[in-house]
Amino acid sequence: MASFLLSIAAAGAGLAAATKGRExxxxxxxxxxxxxxxxxxxKRIAGQIPxxxxxxxxxxxxxxxxxxxxxxxxxxxxxxxxxxxxxxxRTIALTKETREGLSDLKFTGRYRVPFQxxxxxxxxxxxxxxxxxxxxxxxxxxDGNRLIDLSGSYGVNLLGYDxxxxxxxxxxxxxxxxxxxxxxxxxxxxxxxxxxxxxxGMDEVSFHMSGTEAVMQAVRLARYHTGRRxxxxxxxxxxxxxxxxxxxxxxxxxxxxxxxxxxxxxRTLDVLRRRRDIACVLVNPLQAMHxxxxxxxxxxxxxxxxRRASFDRDAYADWLTRLAATCRxxxxxxxxxxxxxxxxxxxxGASEYFGVRPDLVTYGKTLGGGLPVGVICGRADLMQRxxxxxxxxxxxxxxxxxxxxxxxxxxxxxxxRLERPEVRALYDGQxxxxxxxxxxxxxxxxxxxxxxxxxxxxxxxxxxxxRPSRYNWMLQYYLRMEGLALSWVGTGRLIFxxxxxxxxxxxxxxxxxxxxxxxxxxxxxxxxxxVTDKSLRRGVLRETVRARxxxx
Length: 552
Description:
It contains 20 helices and 16 strands. The protein has helices spanning 2-29, 39-46, 56-59, 67-87, 89-99, 103-110, 115-124, 161-175, 188-200, 211-226, 266-274, 313-330, 349-354, 380-383, 405-418, 421-427, 430-447, 475-481, 502-521, 533-548, and strands at 131-135, 138-141, 146-149, 204-208, 230-234, 258-261, 278-283, 333-337, 360-364, 374-378, 386-387, 390-394, 452-457, 460-465, 484-485, 494-495. The chain has a seven-stranded mixed β-sheet, sandwiched between helices. A four-stranded mixed β-sheet has the order 1-2-3-15. It is globular, with a radius of gyration of 26 Å.
């Protein structure tokens, strides 16, 4: 009998092991094959990559260009640096002075271009961080330079800076009598709740001070109500800098409760159907431009093929529809993180634009009317932070500045403005309008024989490069000299405000093409026989290995 029971136990253990093995295999197959889908491996690899910088000679010959091309680049770089430092002198001077005490400036300055080039570029082409004023879509720096803003203030600037100045004035005036009293609500809070419920179709609203905080609370609520620990994010997606939603590079501690799966994958849906330990799935609709790809930045441009982007609205809407159905069937909370795209694609956000209703949705950026904010909207059962039958078991989330009167004032001004006929008209035909603008720029670039194209989702664009090159990151500096202002991620993300009229957009195209022409003429897009993106990547890999082994 004992041997029989042991046999049964052994068989049971073997069956459990086999089942667990199948689950692990299924999970592994649902991950994206690239490093974006294997965040622990990516972090380990990142920890092994040593710093090395190019000496003056190699700086101009990273693609093994001949001597005459390298000399043309050197002369062009020197001319650009001389003109750059003269044109932006005062702005650069204050930036250098402030950088010594401001760690944020040190970080962004270091990661504008691939690190091998960074030291020389920082010395010769230091980027000024200060501005004096804005005027519609135009920015003016400390030297009086007029720049057309393509940075979008990280997505905040939807309606144009003049509109946000008005909202801040209106909001401040509306709450001035109460002032910065915290712990109680200004009556405008009630108005904001009513408008947000109507706009989103959700039951309840919760206010926070940043998009990251809103995501943190949304995930916490999902875990609280499902009793499950794990969360799912998709490869490459950004949901703020909180540890659990940013596993891998950038996070010093492991996020063991987070699964990073492939987006738009049937294998991912299969995992979500079968597992019962997943509390929520996070979706950043911005990923529709580059599913499973990280946010593009010029510091990653070691070649041209590494940056990809395209947008298929119907395909992504179909994916979200199937994802939502799968989550509902599995009892998993679906969260749309609309901190970036909320109110940009449609007045009702990505949920309205793609026609899919999540369980919870987070907002931030533009909803604050120009001031910091984070908001969660969701189903009543998920927004509740206590259990009726377990009064001590709560889901805590409070913040000193949540629902700050001045933020509530500017939010109210934004939501009221969103209802104006002239603002609603900005959304009419948005897809066609921005697609036509995209085609205009791409046609002009193609006609000039330039190895540059743009891809976009309405007013959010990424610049792509069609010829193998180690120097695509140089375009951001030529664009700045032509009066186009980008964020510190360079050509990876262009964000247009909706107040850019056709005449100004035509000027943007002219300036963009002029910048690309100058870069082409200066030899940065030279490509030799046999040079491919693959050969460029392999060259960087060989350099990295030699540096790791101390052989440089």
